[in-house]
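Please check what follows.
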Amino acid sequence: MIGVELQSTESLVDDSQNGVSDLRSEIVACDMSNIAIFVQEGSIELSETFRDTSIGLLYLKTDAYASLASEILHTLNKLFKLYLWGPYTISSCLLHYKVLL
C-alpha cells in the first residue's frame, strides 16, 4: 500500500471508539514485520495505535513525532530499522529509550 493516510476525525469520536478498538486489535494481530511505515506527521493517538505491533521498518519525518514515538519504540517487537528524516536538533527531538532486561 502506498499513499495510505490515517486521520482522526473529532466529530466521530463518540461513535468510533469500538471501531478504533477493533482496528487496533487487527493491527496488533497482523504480522507487520515486512511492512514499512512512513509517518509524515504523527500524533499520540497514532503512536498508541502502533504500540505492541510487529512493524519492521519505521520512517519518521518530523522531530516532534520522533519524540512522541520514542515512548512506544520499545514495544515494537520486530522493529529492525528506524529512519529519522529531516532536520533534527538535540533540543527539538528527545528520544527516550527504555531498557528491556
